[in-house]
Amino acid sequence: xxxxxxVLLNPREYEHSLDQQALNALEGTPGLEKLARxxxxxxxxxxxxxxxxxxxxxxxxxxxxxxxxxxxxxxDILDLRDVPEIYIEWDYSVNGFTTGSEKPLxxxxxxxxxxxxxxxxxxxxxxxxxxxxxxHMLYHEMAIVFPILGDVIGGATLGIGxxxxxxxxxALLYWYRMSEFTADRAGLLACQNEDAVITAxxxxxxxxxNFYDKIDKEGFIxxxxxxxxFDYNALDKIGKTVMIMDKTHPWTVMRASEILKxxxxxxxxxxxxxxxxxxxxxxxxxxxxxxxxxTGNETFCGVCGAKVWKR
Length: 311
Known about the structure:
13 helices, 6 strands, two-stranded antiparallel ribbon, four-stranded mixed β-sheet, single chain, globular, alpha+beta, Zincin-like
């Protein structure tokens, strides 16, 4: 299928409201700013880069170029100029992840490459590109590292320091989960195939390979629609929060439910139409943090002071 390149796409335009709310709460958490200043992102990133580049197979122009072409296509569609490195990890779950706030790299599992079709794989790659485009990687790194630091500091301070870290850790993990909803939207924008997103999420949920020809997409959609109803019951909200509070990803059916809500709202189609080439002159350039309209020449937003996202 022919996909539309989304010119001048700003991640704020498809950012999930729960992502923004969780980020605001996270940034208001006492102690985070101080710890973030002391957090040595260069050392942590170097550690992760050494671990992944030393263990996993890098995809390039001669090693599986078809996968590299898919990454380049996702970056082109989502208007991400710098194409990150991409690696393969031996793991037969259907998964992918991204690390590195300074120089991001994407890792795809062997299971994702074997079990997803081309459209589904483009969705998963676009999901990871979306994390990079939205600038999620620094807090993602901190969410991974902070539990380790909390154990060390808790032991050294008779548990008092650990309590502080526990609060920060839960806030980081909650935001991490909400950021997945934004990245899912980026994945859909990359593949521009609603069916592929649903079937990819079904495979991530655990559909056995022997049953791929019997996938009941409509049944999964119905399950996702039914899941929406639980949100109206406060007890169910509490239950869902407690059960996944230490996880980095929300439930897969919840992710399907949220992406279907976005599609049904019409905002997905509106965004596609707004960013195709013939409509580019009508686009407004806005601050990625506060939404203030910009001229396009600023380095920092005049309203909130945030560094302007460069196109």
